[in-house]
Every structure is written in structure tokens, then in C-alpha cells.
Amino acid sequence: MTDFFKGLSQVKFEGPQSRSPLAYRHYNKDEMIAGKRMEDHIRPAIAYWHTFAQEGGDPFGGRTFDRPWFDKGLEGAKLKAEVAFEFFDLIDVPFFAFHDVDVAPEGATLDESNKNLRVIGDIIGQKMQQSGKKLLWGTANLFSNRRYMAGAATNPDPEVFAYAAGQVKAVLELTHELGGENYVLWGGREGYETLLNTKIGQEQDQMARFLTLVIEHAEKIGFTGQILIEPKPQEPSKHQYDYDVATVYGFLQKYGLEKKVKCNIEVGHAFLAGHSFEHELAVASSLGMLGSVDANRNDLQSGWDTDHFPNNAGEMALAFYYILKQGGLGKGGFNFDAKVRRQSLDAADLLHGHVLGLDTLARGLKGAVALIEDGEFDKLLDDRYAGWDNGLGQDILGGKLSLADIAAKVQADGINPQPRSGRQEYLENLVNRFV
User: Fold this and answer.
1) Residue 153 has what pLDDT?
2) N or C terminus of the chain: which is more exposed, having fewer CB within 10 Å?
3) pLDDT tens-digit map of 31-61
4) Spatial separation of the C-alpha atoms in residues 322 and 348, rounded to whole Å
5) 3-class SS shares of the chain: helix, strand, coil, % to 5
6) Cβ neighbours of residue 203 closer than 8 Å, sequence gap 6 or more
């Protein structure tokens, strides 16, 4: 045991009336909701990077945190692993997620980096066996090192592509060995800053080839988890090839990969794309692409991905509505890709942030379940589109009528439709009843 969380106890559910600063008021992991334990609906995970690797910096200032494992190389990484699993127990969630460079220091060569990863990976595996904690997903950091300044898979230099491939191979294999349920590819630099030095078609061909190689290797080693792409617009590249769910789906469909890959959708990224979280979830679900999600939020007054902990139960209720309507997240889950603020220096602040996030998700889940069980919301949606269930609507969708046939029918039957209210304000009030 380390003394990083000295004096802090495991967070327990105490109910809405609790005044304890470190207690769950709404997140009760064993509570049965719609036939499943709350924990099994949410499948929460701790993000190794923001919780243990981030230094408290922002675009205008550097490190503010003073963690005992910083700048300590491999020995520091071992200490960080000890602290991480202590935290997983304190916050009492079943999953975690990591990038390779979050858990192990990057070496001077790929071989050295992979050896470091293997050392810490073995430690993590032992701790998983001892604690029962599970890996929601693993991924490789293909964006921080200067070699990736022009992208990884989309880099104009094939040697950078090759280096990235070697990095992903190691992390994918470790993810498989640790029983990870997903492998995520986040194209943090897979975009461009100016067309003056960019061949878009060339770069997208490269990205598709990279993804195909990952899929093939996953199948070769027997990895049965999901392969996920995480859409991310604007930041850091001005034009990202994985801008949003629709863009990712179009890319996958072009290269015949849409049946092999799903999306990991983040609240903050949806916002940067000009969408709401529920929009991205709805689009992904309609395309069969909703695999997993990241739970966070952005500061609406700041122009970058600030990764605050979620605190809006109403927004989460709408998110859970789409998740529940598709039957849940399956192998996915809610990864807390969220961080404490740069002035939040204490170890306890890490717990406070995750308590807030889990209580928010719990309230959102309960609200969505109540909304669905009530039935009026779904009925109003069905009623609005009822005309497509039979008669003219079915004939149009079924291809029974040509454009000329439809025009003739309008004339013959004297069709003169009148607008009907979309009832948005009523629906907003209805949703608000259950939050």
C-alpha cells in the first residue's frame, strides 16, 4: 500500500440524504433497474491518463500537480500502477482504460518502449487478478510524440506509419492478454492543418490500410473485443478525418469496413463537432455503430476540450434513452475521460470528481428508464410517424410507386396536407418530469 490516498476510505452508497462529502447519493451499483444491476447498465471505467498521468496543465500553463511518480521512469510507473489500483478500489468501479504511454514510460526506441510496456503490463495483469478489476479498453498514444506531428497512419512518411503500426501491435496484444473488451483508435493527429501540403485521398487510403491491418491482426491473435474509432473534430488538427460519427461511417463504408468497427463517442467531442451527445448516440445507434462512450463535458465558455466531469443529469437521461433503446452498450461502457481542474491539487479531489460523475450517470439512467417505462414519449414519436406504417407511406418506402405515380396520386386523391405541431416544448416538459 502507498500513502497517496492516506486517510481516505472506499466510497459507499449512502442515499440522497447523505451529507458525507465522499459518498454516493444516487449511484448504487447493486440496485436493480429494468432487470439489470446499475453497475451492469453503466459499466463505468477510470481513465488512466487523466486520473494519474495528467499534470494539471492547460494551453496557457504547465504542471500544477505534484505526483510522486512524475519523472521517475519505470520505477515511477510501478508506483503509479500501485496508486491506480488503490484508487479503483476506493472509487469501487469495475473497469479502467489506458494508453500505452499512460502506464509505461516511452523509450528511446520502439523496442525499449514495448519492453517498458511489457514490464508494467505484467504488473497490471497481476493486480487485475488480485482485485477483480477489468480492462474496458486499451489504446496507443499516436499523437503526443513529435514524430506524429503530421499524423500517424496519415503521415507522409511511411516510416512513421510503420513505427505507429509497431506501437499498436504491442498495445493490441497486451489488451488481448489482459482480457480487454475493446480496442480504441483515436486519430489525434489524423487530419491536416493546410491543404497546401496535403493529399487528402492519399492520407485516407493510408488510414484505411492502417485500420485494416489492425483488424486483421486482432483476428489473427483471437481478440474478440470490439474495434472502436473515437470521433474527434477540430482539436488538435483543424480538419480531422474522424470529425463525427457520420464522417467516420462514410469513411468506413467507402473502404468496406463498416461491419468491422464501431464508435466510441465522447460528450466533449460531440460538442466540438457542433452536435449534442444524444445526437451522436442516436446517429451511431441508427447505423449500428454505437460501441462505447466517454463521459465528460466541456466548459461552454472555453474553446477546447476541457474534459470536466459530467454534472447534467438531464443530458445523461437523453443519452441513456438511446443506449437503452438499442439494448445497452454490450461490451462497451462509460469511460470517465474526465479530469480534475488544475487548481484541484489534493488526492481527494480525484474521488470527488468521480463521485459527481457516477451520481450524474445514475440519475440519468433512472430518468431514462422511467421515461421509457412511462411510454408516452415513445408513443408521441410513433404517432408523429404513423403515416409511414401503412398505406401511402408503405407504398413509397416499399418502392411500389414511382415519382410519376406519387404525383398522379396526389392529384387524383386531392392530397393537400396541412402542417402539424412538432410539440417540442411539450416533449421537453415531458422529459423533465423524469430527471
Assistant:
1) 98
2) N
3) 999 999 999 999 999 999 999 999 999 888 9
4) 33
5) 50, 10, 40
6) 151, 154, 190, 192, 241
Residue of 26, 100, 102, 275 marked catalytic: 102
102 is catalytic: yes
**Is 374 labelled as part of a ligand binding site?**
no
Is-catalytic flag, 99? yes
Query: Are residues 81 and 123 in contact, defined by beta-carbon separation less than 8 angstroms?
Result: yes
- Our CA angle for 250, 251, 257, nearest 5°, is 100
Let me know: does 172 contact 221? Beta carbons within 8 Å: yes
Tell me how far apart the alpha carbons of residues 236 and 111 are, in angstroms, rounded to a whole number: 28
User: Which grid cell is 361?
Assistant: 450517470
Catalytic residue among 41, 50, 99, 275: 99
For strands 226-229 and 261-266, give the pairing. parallel
Whether residue 211 contacts residue 160, with contact meaning beta carbons closer than 8 Å, is answered with: no
Answer for the pair 334, 343: CB distance below 8 angstroms, yes or no: no
Q: What are the structural domains, with CATH classification, of the chain?
A: 27-374 (3.20.20.150), 388-432 (no CATH)
Report how far residue 323's alpha carbon sits from residue 33's, in angstroms, rounded to the nearest whole number. Answer: 14
Q: How far apart are CA 326 and CA 289, in angstroms?
A: 11
The reply, when asked if residue 230 is annotated as ligand binding, is yes
294 among annotated binding-site residues: yes
CA 301 to mean position of chain CA atoms: 22
Confidence of residue 305 (pLDDT cuts 50, 70, 90): confident
Q: What is the pLDDT averaged over residues 395-417?
A: 97
Summarised one tens digit per residue, pLDDT across range 229-244 is: 999 998 788 899 999 9
CB neighbours (10 Å) of residue 78?
15
Alpha carbon of 313 to those of 68, 301, 365: distances in Å? Answer: 35, 20, 9
Region 69-89: mean pLDDT is 98
Residue (of 175, 165, 150, 151) closest to 48 by Cα position: 175
**Measured between alpha carbons, how far is residue 370 from residues 338, 367, 373, 383 in Å?**
27, 5, 5, 20
Q: Is the pTM of this model over 0.70?
A: yes
